């Protein structure tokens, strides 16, 4: 959040306390609250737009869905998690490996 938005939120809090103590009118508090709400919504929209721009180029997700095996696959880790009744089973014991592990350094290949 920007410093200006944080200042607005503090002002809203102070206006609420003043209204509760009878030092200001409801209309004044309402105007401060509306301005703060509008600023928060605009800041949130800007944040979401910036986030969408950043991740737009990242087409690769963390997991890939494989319809034929009904699994979520993480190719980087080489693990596939089964989907049971539409719910991914993310328990490590239920996962299967999708690639062969590289041979140990001391072992010989035939």
Give the topology.
Elements: H1 3-20, H2 26-55, E1 64-66, E2 71-74, E3 79-84, E4 87-88, E5 96-97
Helix pairs in contact: 1-2
Total DSSP helices? 2
Shape, principal axes of CA atoms: elongated
Q: What structural class should be given to the helix and strand makeup?
A: alpha+beta
Uncertain ranges: none
Distance between the termini: 61 Å
Account of the protein in words:
The protein has 110 residues and is α+β, with helices and mostly antiparallel strands. The chain has 2 helices and 5 strands. It has helices at 3-20, 26-55, and strands at residues 64-66, 71-74, 79-84, 87-88, 96-97. It is elongated.
Features:
alpha+beta, 2 domains, 5 strands, 2 helices, 110 residues, five-stranded antiparallel β-sheet
Task: Summarize the model shown.
By secondary structure, this protein is of the alpha+beta class. The protein is built from 2 helices and 5 strands. Helix 1 packs antiparallel against helix 2 (26-55).
